[in-house]
Specification:
transmembrane; transmembrane helix
Length: about 190
């Protein structure tokens, strides 16, 4: 399997996962009582990360050193947020049953620090990667702007998953360009050698 085939596979996984994530988040607004959407989000967000990897792999040369650093920060933040999502989905109900006074809006230390670190790293990654896309990308400047808008959505009340709409649309946008072969990880002439 060539690098371009791997990247195209990552692209289709990113597109499907992002669409599933958007559908799950939208359904959670319709039926907020169900835990099914949290389970879907926890699983699908790790697959959305594959789309994020694709978005970087096809632009490594254009994004340069700042793009690499911003991608690393965003990756760390993304992994932390995925871990946080798994914790809230699967450990949250158990923690609430063991300690009914525990409230996710007023978590004790060190849980609150872990949540804040995840949130801060993720938002810094969105900011830096969004700037690197706006500054250097030849294929996807608009997704860079959507990453930055996602930060504002993260802080806009009510605190919910609305930022993921912008993040998923950005990943779909870039992955679609990869899937339709508008951009490749390496030139096709080099890939066949």
């Amino acid at each position: 399997m060539t690098l371009n085939q791997v990247v195209r596979t990552f692209a289709i996984i990113g597109i499907i996962a992002s669409i599933a994530n958007i559908a799950s988040i939208t359904y959670a607004y319709i039926n907020p009582e169900t835990n099914v959407t949290n389970i879907i989000d926890a699983f699908v967000s790790s697959l959305v990360f594959i789309g994020l990897i694709c978005s970087y792999l096809v632009q490594t040369k254009d994004l340069g050193g700042f793009g690499l650093i911003s991608f690393i920060i965003l990756s760390i933040g993304f992994i932390l947020v995925c871990g946080l999502e798994w914790t809230i989905t699967f450990a949250g109900p158990v923690m609430e049953s063991l300690s009914p006074s525990l409230n996710f809006d007023n978590l004790p230390s060190p849980l609150i620090e872990g949540m804040a670190t995840s949130f801060l790293t993720f938002n810094l990654g969105l900011l830096f990667f969004g700037i690197s896309l706006l500054k250097s990308s030849k294929i996807s400047r608009w997704p860079g702007l959507l990453f930055i808008i996602a930060i504002a959505a993260n802080f806009a009340p009510p605190m919910d998953d609305k930022a993921w709409y912008f993040i998923n649309i950005s990943i779909i946008w870039i992955c679609w360009k990869v899937w339709t072969r508008k951009v490749t990880a390496v030139p096709e002439s080099l890939n066949s050698e």
